[in-house]
Amino acid sequence: MGKYIWISLITSTLLLGEDRVELYGTNVDAEGSIATATGNPVALYQDQIISADKLSYDRNASVMEANGSVNIFKAGHYHTISNYSRINLNDDTRYSTPYYAVDTQSGLWMSTSEAQGCQSDIDLASGSLSGCDSVDPLWRIRFSSADYNTDKMWVNLYNARLEIEDIPVFYLPYFGYPTDRTRRSGLLIPSLGWSGSEGFYYLQPVYLAPKNWWDLELRPQIRTLRGSGIYADFRFVDTLSSQGSIRMGYFKEQSTYALENDLAHIKHYGYDVHYRHSAPLREWFDLDLEGESGLYVDGKWMNDVDYLNLQESDETKNVTANQVMSRINLYYSSEDNYFGSYFKHYQYLNIENNGATIQTLPTFHYHRYLKSFLDDYLLISGDAMATHYYRPNGKRAIEANFNIPLALQTSVFDDYLDVSYTANASASMMGFYANGRPDETGSAYEQGKYAQLDHTFSIGSTLVKPYDNNITHVINPNVSYTSAGSRYYGGYYKTFHSSQECVVGNTDPACEYYSLNEPSDTLSLGVNNYVFENGTQLFVDRLSQNFRYDDQGSYYGELQNELEWQISSAISFYNQTAFNHDRNRVTKEQNTLRYNGEIVTAGVSHYYSDQLQKNLPVYASYWTADVGYRYNRNYQIFANVAYDYHESLMKRSEIGVLYTQRCFDFGVRFVQNRRPVLTNDMNNNSVNDSYIFITILLKPIGGSEFNYKLTGN
């Protein structure tokens, strides 16, 4: 035994440059420059562990050979198996036959008749690969040859044939994929589809990532019976405190398709800009300020809603609305002060021209944070805002608002009651400029001044009651009364206040900028209830009621209640209700019931509203429901529906089934969806689409989704 240990120690000190080869085994023999190990031999070299029935190492030639049941473990998660392997440590060449390799982290394996490697390049003979069990894989990709670069971590397959359950389903002359998650340039998996009205659909993403701080994704697409276009996403991280993205898109319709569908535009284009920076003043201007600054940009513009619809084949993923809002917010906040600047731009997609749409460009805001005096009995804060209302066509305005609340607060009756008095002083000034529309008069836009002083008295309490079963009940009643106090009207505000012209429902252009509410005393009652179990919230109920008093007498505001109830670990219920006393009816209600179990998940929600707009009732009644059933660990069924009850219109419906394994996902779903479009006939501005989606995911390589689209209308 001493002989074998001595030989092992000798061979373990052999050096190749700075790399040492260590050879161990129950039986180790040395003859000249060759050391041979048998009896569970193991060799260690760099980050590799090699085992076989027989290992030999030629010190002069720096060649290691492994025979029988060869196993090589590399870098902690690569495992190769062969009957014979030869490694030349001088020129870093390798040969194995047959060759089986598996990535133990992802589970992806590759099997070939032989493999030859030189430094970072490995050439592979014909074989197959899969992420499933190697004995009887659910799917595999067969190839005639392949090569692998260990530095770039990239595999190329030639004449690749996808087989599912040994049935050929797809062929590609070339297929490449990465073996790690490093960002790299290349082609992404395409999207394919077919539509009865749009023809064959093909979208091929091209990904460019030359630098680690930015990347670009180009998505050219073609719809053979409709048109073609391209979208691009540019994403970047310019500093450690900021990141952003820019999306641009263009699509041109074929003239026959545009005419048949009466589209308002033959070209659709637009852009989206998103940017966040958490320290612009420090990093851009090198200002060493004690406070913090921030910049937020969310900009959008499009010539019509089809810019959104055409971004991808699955139009059900697009969230569309008639109004598109762009924002730029910039702020600086210190311990005592806040400075903000806000830009808002509105675009309405259901009209051709937004020249008369009022924009806020910009609003300047100063806020003085709450300060306490007299041992926290006196509290004071302040706000000042200046807003520029701009539009290309029509009168424009500049408005200034000031608000200073002063509060006195204390606790009485051994802290059972909190009482406070607040004096709230505010003022507004507004001036107008530019030319009005033909239906506007100059006298309607004289300068306006307004001031008010209100007084609010509040009483509240927070009572906590613990119970033996780890249940805690918290009740928070509160009462407040606001006295309208004094008012001053001047100029524009006085003219339209005294004539009572600018009231709810008045569409006079002069009332566009009139936003004052008539003064009234208000009594507010509220009570909040909370129930906790072991610190976890089980039940919340918030009830509030306002009473208003003015020259016409008193009247009720809406009774509002909000309830959240975690009935059990799997069942939850939410309700929000508003009741109008004057109309003697519920004007708003939302109910949501959910069940989240291990096998079944389901939810149903109903939204109802009956609000007055321009003194006319506007109804809405909307149902949504979803359900999911997991039959076993492989199969699950799901469905959802959205139905506009008031319009008797199905907005969306979907049903599908998903089969999933460790290495494979296959899903089929049928979707019906109503989406908006901009047409020359404004009464026909939506399309009802039907889709069949087929999803195939080969784990961990990836997958794609094919859709067949049937368009109604």
If you had to describe this structure to a student in words, what would you say it looks like?
With 713 residues, the chain is mainly beta. Among the domains are: 1-80, Lipopolysaccharide (LPS) transport protein A like domain (lipopolysaccharide transport protein A fold), CATH 2.60.450; 98-182, no CATH class. It is built from five helices and 50 strands. Strand 45 (616-630) and strand 46 (635-644) form a beta hairpin. The longest helix has 11 residues, at 2-12. It is elongated.
What's the topology here?
Elements: H1 2-12, E1 15-16, E2 19-24, E3 27-31, E4 34-38, E5 42-45, E6 48-51, E7 54-58, E8 63-74, E9 78-88, E10 93-97, E11 99-103, E12 109-112, E13 115-118, E14 121-124, E15 127-130, E16 139-143, E17 145-149, E18 154-164, E19 167-178, E20 186-187, E21 191-195, E22 199-203, E23 206-211, E24 214-223, E25 227-239, E26 242-253, H2 255-260, E27 267-277, H3 280-285, E28 292-302, H4 306-309, E29 323-333, E30 337-348, E31 359-373, E32 378-390, E33 396-412, E34 417-433, E35 448-460, E36 463-466, E37 471-491, H5 492-498, E38 521-533, E39 536-550, E40 553-556, E41 559-566, E42 571-580, E43 585-596, E44 600-613, E45 616-630, E46 635-644, E47 649-660, E48 664-676, E49 686-698, E50 702-711
Parallel strand pairs: 21-50
Antiparallel strand pairs: 1-2, 2-5, 3-4, 4-7, 5-6, 6-8, 7-8, 8-9, 9-10, 9-11, 10-13, 11-12, 12-15, 13-14, 14-17, 15-16, 16-18, 17-18, 18-19, 20-23, 21-22, 22-24, 23-24, 24-25, 25-26, 26-27, 27-28, 28-29, 29-30, 30-31, 31-32, 32-33, 33-34, 34-35, 35-37, 36-37, 37-38, 38-39, 39-40, 39-41, ...
